[in-house]
Amino acid sequence: MKKFLIGICFILILFSFALYNLRLLPLIINAFSIIFLLLFITDFKITVNLRDIISIISIYTCILFLSFYWKNNMAFDFNEFISSFVIFMIYLIIFSVYFNNYQNIPHKYRNIFVQIYKYFLIVNFIVILAQFILEFTLNFRLLFPWQPTRSQRQMGIMSEPSHNAMIYLPFIFENRIFDHRFGVLMMTLITLLSASASFFVLYIFYLVLLLRNLKLKINNLLAVTAIILLVSLFVFGIDYSNLNLFIRLSRIGINDASSFTRLYKGFVLFENNGFVHNVLGDGPGNNVLSVNRYDGKYYTLVNLEGEMMSGVFANVFSYGIVLAIAIYIFIYVNIKKAHLETMFLFLILFTFYSGEGFSNYIFYNVLIVTSLIDLHAVNKEDT
Fold it and tell me: What predicted TM-score, i.e. pTM, was given to this entire model?
């Protein structure tokens, strides 16, 4: 019975990724699922680390003191501050407690996590293929209630095509879950069908890690990828409008709205923001104030998508660069217990392009899910 409940909790954690655009509902599902998962796998015997408690209290105290400075700005949105701070506060505690108890996860549960995650990815991949086939042959768009109708790209069960990058991110660090030929096929087709620049970045890193881990000759990997791409291009060649990925990649540049928001906006605002604002920030949920200050050359592009920007700069403009670095260090110290240093560094690089910051539950979840499907831990305990 306990294994069944643990499995349900993990499924709900993964499914909350798919419901991301529904905002509050997936966040509640995710938080409670992680809490109950942790309680079940530890038999309600959770341990806490005094050093982490002191660190968390210190971070919260700094935020509360800084809030007196932030509130001096007449444009400061207190409601956004409270909602963002509460999410950050809850997940920092959950994150810390989870990794303090990570070593206590029994082996009998780890294989359950691996299998559930594996089949979740397969189901999502099958849905992506079905969406493409149905639209290509019958002009019928297969959509779920939580998905937008305006997108012309395949998204599987995720809220948006780009959100596939969130759920597949743990896989690239545990790519032995699938046969490597199937893994390359799956990742290549999702890259093409989702036409997501975020997933394309993930795909390139996946190939690099696969090459390193397998110690393959580069020409072998390139040959496999080239064959898949050529077959895919032949299929897509019937209708070149389906080559959305290449069209989107060709637009990457400072004058493209999406590329600007993801890649350049943070750097432009950082340069314009001023020393004090960059060091002290504007408060969680108020990084839009850095947008409001800008009136330079890229004014239209900066304001086009409001407060949207990369996760790293959202953290800097919200918490200030000093406190943001302190939080990153705290997270790094915790994930070292699960040997996720490479994953953490990639996540920082990836969030220079994507929007996951400290007040986003996905940021913490990709690290938690990766640790749960750790095949090294499973194999180690098998011996």
Answer: 0.87
